[in-house]
Amino acid sequence: MILQKVGIDLAEKLCENDPVRKNIPFDWRVSDCRREMFHLEKKAVVCVAHLNGIPITEKELLSFEWGCYSIFYTVWSSERGMGRKIIEETKNLLQSQHFSNRYITMSPKTEMATKFHLKNGAILLQENPTTNNFEYES
Q1: What is the rounded CA–CA span in Å between residue 119 and residue 138?
Q2: Is 111 exposed, middle or buried (0-12, 13-18, 19+ CB in 10 A)?
Q3: Contact call for residues 2 and 43 (beta carbons, < 8 A)
Q4: What is the pLDDT of residues 90-137, one digit of tens each?
Q5: How do the residues of the chain divide into helix, strand and coil, expressed in percent and rounded to 5?
Q6: Which of 15, 25, 89, 120 is deepest in the core (most CB within 10 A)?
Q7: What span, in angstroms and rounded, lies between the C-alpha atoms of 90 and 95?
Q8: Is 23 in contact with 63 (CB distance < 8 Å)?
Q9: Which residue(s) pair with 46 in the sheet?
Q10: Which SS3 state, helix, strand or coil, does residue 21 take?
């Protein structure tokens, strides 16, 4: 499977299935160089924002400026193992194309999200009132 960047047309369709951040507009996710979506044959999707800080709320996510933190703020998949695969492939692509030096999540405070990120090699960076930030090794 080949990792592909998502354009505005496909973003609308894919975002209908986002179980984590359904309220973030699909066009915001792909509207400029700070924000990107990727997919693996529509079986896994990840949304990334390249920001100047580590957001802990959606309000911060939507308002921070462009920077060197790549924030994975939503990921979902329709097949077992695809979530891990898209995180790995996206991180590898970003490392080769961007100057980002940190790969951090803004994850919901759920047991499933915590298990997913810890199992896939991330460390818990900080706990927040409504989110957790995990960091993947650069």
Answers
A1: 17
A2: exposed
A3: no
A4: 999 999 987 678 999 999 999 999 999 999 999 999 999 999 999 998
A5: 30, 30, 35
A6: 15
A7: 8
A8: no
A9: 38, 75
A10: coil
Structure tokens at 23: 């309220």
Q: What was the pLDDT predicted at 135? A: 97
Angle formed by the axes of helices 82-97 and 111-119, nearest 10°: 60
Residue boundaries of the structural domains of the chain: 3-136
Per the CB < 8 A criterion, the answer to whether 37 and 29 are in contact is yes
| Fold held by 3-136 | Aminopeptidase (3.40.630)
- CB-neighbour burial class of residue 42 (10 A; exposed 0-12, middle 13-18, buried 19+): middle
